[in-house]
TrEMBL record:
Homology family: Belongs to the bacterial solute-binding protein 1 family.
Signal peptide: 1-23
Intracellular or extracellular location(s): Periplasm
Name of the protein this chain belongs to: ABC transporter substrate-binding protein
Signal recorded as keyword: yes
Species of the source: Rubrivivax albus
Keywords recorded for this protein, A-Z: Signal
Gene3D superfamilies the record matches: Periplasmic binding protein-like II
Length: 425
């Protein structure tokens, strides 16, 4: 019998080699933070990629809000179970670097084609994707803040429905004409609504950028919350409600702002361009999309999430993750994603695809966010970003609810940010 053993072993080995190799399974943590069937779109993209790349399986893990996602990712990483890749806020770049859980894309790209791809994104989106001469995040679901207005309510108020307010003075003037009350004196339609829960710092950056202010330095080690231009911007936001009576008092919910727009409870709203498809499907009336009105200048922060690759992944897994990220941000896919969601297509090449050109021929609104990029600033991002941002959010809500003056609120926020960032300078 002994003479058969080598033959049997060789046969078993040959049979094993003939079997297809097990597909690499890559986990993708993904935030579901904006209305609409985003999970179905991501599942569809993963399935399409797997058809073209049968050796790689993508396993999306829907992790809740952006804040939930980074918390879950860091907890998993500390437990030795980090995902292979994730879509996380571009502003969390410093936190991910400081925690030592991600790798720069410069270490992953090898070919001239890959390098050209990495250099093909809008520079405005790369401001929150690069630091120290390296690229840590790849833009994916990126956005700017834009203004939506109800054209019918403009007509009813005697305003030109095709001309939204162009500056801060016009926003107040239009707001007064658009704000409506019932017989008892209760407001039924607010002229203007800017949400201040969820991402208050982000909406506030619209005001500060328009007032010529910058909230942080490029190294992410210093904030400027108490500068006069920042305080003035906050005073304007507070005055929309307290002084002019055109904006809801107190804290306005992020999640319900589009619904308030659908229900004609607000004539003008500021929110992410990522809500564009949601609003188009549900508004039930003719609406417009415009750049935010100018103060001293036009301005908006960029926003949204980037792809990151995690150190936990093996070299082969990193290579597979890069392949997926390059595929899903290619011009054709980036265009399809933007059309399906309302996010800004992240590269100029995506806007030149047949799919995007056909879409824009029928609906030109998506170009607003793209064209506004020339006035955009990097979203607030520092080391210890969650804590530094919370200091600002707390100050904003204190001012908007009237528990502090804008000046005191920003002084207190700056003091807290200084305390948190001191060790990074």
């Amino acid at each position: 019998m002994s003479r058969w053993i080598p033959t049997l072993a060789a046969a078993a080995l040959a049979a094993a080699c003939a079997l297809p190799a097990a597909a690499q399974e890559l986990s993708l943590y993904y935030p579901v933070a904006v209305g609409g069937p985003v999970t179905k779109i991501i599942d569809g993209l993963a399935a399409d990629f797997e058809k073209e790349n049968p050796g790689i399986k993508i396993k999306p893990v829907y992790a809740g809000s952006y804040q939930d996602t980074i918390t879950k990712v860091l907890t998993a990483a500390k437990g030795g179970d980090a995902p292979h890749m994730a879509v996380i806020l571009s502003t969390d770049m410093y936190t991910l670097i400081d925690e030592g859980v991600v790798v720069p894309f410069d270490d992953l790209v090898k070919t001239a084609e890959q390098k050209a791809w990495m250099g093909g994104f809008y520079p405005g989106f790369m401001k929150n994707s690069q630091t120290g001469g390296k690229t840590w995040g790849i833009p994916f679901q990126r956005s700017t803040v834009v203004m939506y207005w109800n054209k019918q309510l403009f007509k009813d108020a005697g305003l030109d429905p095709e001309r939204p307010p162009q500056n801060w003075a016009e926003l107040v003037d239009h707001g007064k004409k658009l704000t409506k009350k019932d017989a008892a004196g209760n407001v039924t339609t607010w002229g203007v609504q800017v949400p201040s829960s969820g991402f208050p710092y982000w909406l506030f950056q619209g005001f500060t950028t328009q007032n010529g202010a910058v909230l942080m330095n490029d190294a992410g080690t210093q904030t400027y919350y108490d500068k006069p231009e920042v305080v003035q911007a906050l005073q304007y936001w507070v005055d929309l409600s307290r002084k002019h009576g055109v904006h809801p008092p107190g804290v306005v919910e992020w999640g319900t702002t589009p619904k308030d727009f659908f229900e004609r409870k607000a004539a003008i709203i500021w929110t992410t361009t990522g809500n564009l498809t949601n609003i188009r499907k549900n508004a039930g009336f003719d609406f417009g999309v415009a750049m935010l009105p100018a103060g001293k200048q036009r301005g908006t922060p960029t926003g949204g999430g980037n792809f990151y690759v995690f150190k936990k992944a093996t070299a082969a897994e990193r290579e597979a993750a890069l392949k997926f990220i390059q595929w899903v941000t290619s011009p054709k896919r980036a265009a399809e994603w933007a059309i399906a969601t309302g996010y800004v297509a992240v590269s100029p090449a995506a806007w030149e695809t047949p799919e995007m050109k056909a879409y824009l021929a029928d609906f030109a609104a998506p170009t607003v966010a793209r064209d506004q990029l020339q006035y955009a600033t990097a979203e607030l991002s520092t080391h210890e970003n969650q804590r530094v941002t919370k200091a600002l959010n707390d100050g904003l809500q204190a001012a908007l609810t009237g528990t502090k003056t804008p000046e005191q609120a920003m002084k207190d926020a700056q003091r807290e940010a200084d305390r948190i960032l001191r060790s990074y300078r």
